[in-house]
């Protein structure tokens, strides 16, 4: 088993650094958002785009990019973070599901092309995946303070992490520990929200991109797309929604884009339902968009097998995290990038259904707790 562990770790790391060093065209969010903000931070202009204050990205990732030595390929940082996720995912899976499940999760994540592709980008997902894994590991070990710190940092990377305490409270039917998570996360986000209040004169706790993301996944141009391309910002007008010019007011513009998305959904309930169904299919069925990792598609099938067999993890963590993934996908975009940070937990659920490994720290099977 040790040889397989080392092999999976090496293969996963090699694939990630290979993706980071090969020449590829930068993605739009890299060119229009993260890298320009990082450059503004380096030059002393603060969080700004085209000379104006911005809140189009949470602050942690641009700060890390700005801290890199000038001339260093930022994708190397992404590859390093993504490679670090591999042993962390193994630790989380071992804690929750035992050694065989952990090895299966490690192997799946090492070969997951969605994660490999993101390791070759300057996007937030490698960092966010790492922080969510740190959060999951701390939570599984009962280290609430460490979990709160990781959840706060994750929220400073992608706003949806603020939903983790709520999902856990619903799952555990208790606000005692999740309440501490919420408090820690609020403390972490408070300076960013205060900065935005001073910069814009409005309450902006996270970013000014929710409206453009809503509209990207819910608009009239989605109707003509094939089913598995709906709800993924594939429509011909999405670029105009997400690429803002220097003359546009971020807050006013974002609220207007959100209004348009809600208005379209309310006026076209049938089309909105079809788009939402397509998003659900891309999250929870093997039906995937072209180029998506086959590893995830296979894991979804096995995860349903685990659900049907009533295989559960002892610590109620995987379900709440996958619930947040689903909510984000259904409301915003069901694209591999948004979904990727939750792949380790889908892989763990899939491994649980196949292995049903008896472990005192592991599974509750068929409604009965496994014996130590």
Number of H- or I-type helical stretches: 18
Shape: globular
Distance between the termini: 22 Å
The largest pleated sheet is described as: 3 strands, antiparallel
Helix percent reads 55-70%
Question: TL;DR of this structure?
Answer:
It is built from 18 helices and five strands.
Task: Provide structural commentary.
This protein is mostly helical. The protein contains 18 helices and five strands. It has two domains: 291 residues, no CATH class; 76 residues, no CATH class. The two termini are 22 Å apart.
Task: Please supply descriptive tags for the structure shown above.
372 residues, mainly alpha, 65% helix, 2 domains, two-stranded antiparallel ribbon
Question: Topology, pairings included?
Answer:
Elements (H helix, E strand, L loop, with lengths): L1 H20 L6 H15 L5 E2 L2 E2 L6 H8 L6 H24 L1 H13 L1 H7 L5 H16 L3 H12 L8 H9 L3 H25 L9 H8 L20 H5 L7 H18 L1 H16 L9 H15 L2 E3 L4 H14 L4 H4 L3 H13 L7 E3 L2 E2 L3
Antiparallel strand pairs: 1-2, 3-4, 4-5
Helix pairs in contact: 1-4, 1-5, 1-6, 2-3, 4-5, 4-6, 4-7, 5-18, 7-8, 8-10, 9-10, 9-16, 11-13, 13-14, 14-16, 15-18, 16-18
